[in-house]
């Protein structure tokens, strides 16, 4: 849930989504769900000469599984906080794995 929590803090911010089919969409993040599906408003297709049929889109819904990567404005990302959250999540997973009893066949 780390990425969901992280992207939830970027709602109402401008981001650029690069899709697996080489489409790049810039817009304002409106919402995100636990599957990392994103809804954008006021979108601009970056490579509209290659995809002219997308010029007239004003908003869109992007399924999380088709996203290659997301460009974020550097001033909106607190890297220290993100690193700390990643460390805490890794520690929780490590503790969870060490607490679970191991089934050993005799």
TrEMBL record:
What is the annotated localization of this protein? Nucleus
Q: Which residues form the Sm domain?
A: 2-76
According to its UniProt entry, the protein's GO biological process terms are: mRNA splicing, via spliceosome
Q: What is its main location?
A: nucleus
- Gene3D superfamilies given for it? 2.30.30.100
List the SUPFAM superfamilies: Sm-like ribonucleoproteins
Record GO cellular component, one term = U6 snRNP
Q: Where is the signal peptide?
A: none
Enumerate the InterPro entries for this protein. LSM_dom_sf, Sm, Sm_dom_euk/arc, U6_snRNA_Lsm2
SMART domains membership:
Sm
Keywords on record? mRNA processing, mRNA splicing, Nucleus, Ribonucleoprotein, RNA-binding, Spliceosome
> One MF term from GO for this chain?
RNA binding
| Function in brief | Component of LSm protein complexes, which are involved in RNA processing and may function in a chaperone-like manner.
Q: Which family does it belong to?
A: Belongs to the snRNP Sm proteins family.
Q: Which PANTHER family did the record assign?
A: SNRNP CORE PROTEIN FAMILY MEMBER, U6 SNRNA-ASSOCIATED SM-LIKE PROTEIN LSM2
**What is the protein name stated in its UniProt record?**
LSM complex subunit LSm2
Q: Which organism is it from?
A: Smittium simulii
